[in-house]
Amino acid sequence: MRLDRFVSMAAGIARRETAAWIRDGRVQVQGREVRNARMQVAASGEEVRLDGELLRAPGHVNLMMNKPAGCISATTSHEHETVIDHVPAALYHPKLAPVGRLDKDTTGLMLLTTDGGLSHRITHPKRKVAKVYRATLKGPLEPDAAARFAAGIVLADGTVCREAGLETMSPEQVRVVLTEGRFHQVKRMLGRVGGHVIALHREQIGPLALDPSLALGAVRPVTDAELRALIDALAANAETGVAPEPASEVPA
Ligand code: URA
Predict the structure, then answer these.
(1) What is the residue-wise DSSP string for the chain?
(2) Active-site choice (4, 24, 51, 103)
(3) pLDDT one-digit tens code per residue, 39-63
(4) pTM score of the predicted model
(5) Which side of the chain, N or C, has fewer Cβ within a 10 Å radius?
């Protein structure tokens, strides 16, 4: 792999910027300053440093997106804009795919990854990864809605949902916590307790919370600390089957 690509992927920075850093002498390979962006690295595990800081060899690409309404959770489409269309060229990888699905009109946290194993572990119902949604409603829910969510809502087609969290934030806004991911599940569950969803936004997947500084449509790499927390939570879920607590903060 070319040195500018290695630095770009490892640091999550656009390639033209890393090429400039290399020209400026900020990158060292095996302890030696290298100003040739085309130099091949990583094949034999060279140590690459940026301003003296060791860069981790780029492996899988994991990105966090604040999904806007109007794009679909797919990699390609002839008809619709996809979540992948929002990935800037500097972060793009041909194997990137969304982890699970959000409806076209749903906004908020979407994880994109090249790591099929990670994606499978997050979406597998057995892992019971908590997904937190904020729903804006046309009007208030029936008074026993939270108790019915806790007991397990039965959908119109007879599907029995797992117990789920429902917190009322205002008469027209609720937070829903699910540990499974059925088609239109939040909208269908809220429909059973008198709710009509006019906007739906995902705030969190397990311990991974949407970065409040990400504007709609913006994408950034998942940090090492975020990835570590997610992987640790998945491992804990596998051992205990217990979903992690969602954060109580509402992103702005
Ligand atoms: N539930 C829904 O109804 N829609 C989504 O996009 C996600 C969960």
Answers:
(1) -BHHHHHHHHHT--HHHHHHHHHTT-EEETTEE---TT-B-STT---EEETTEEPPPP---EEEEEEPTTEESSS--SSSEEGGGGS-GGG--TT-EESS---TT-EEEEEEES-HHHHHHHH-GGG---EEEEEEESSPPPTTHHHHHHH-PBPTTSPBPPP-EEEEEETTEEEEEESS--TTHHHHHHHTTT--EEEEEEEEETTEEPPTTPPTT-EEEPPHHHHHHHHHHHHHHHHH-PPPPPPSPPP-
(2) 103
(3) 988 655 567 888 887 776 667 889 9
(4) 0.75
(5) C
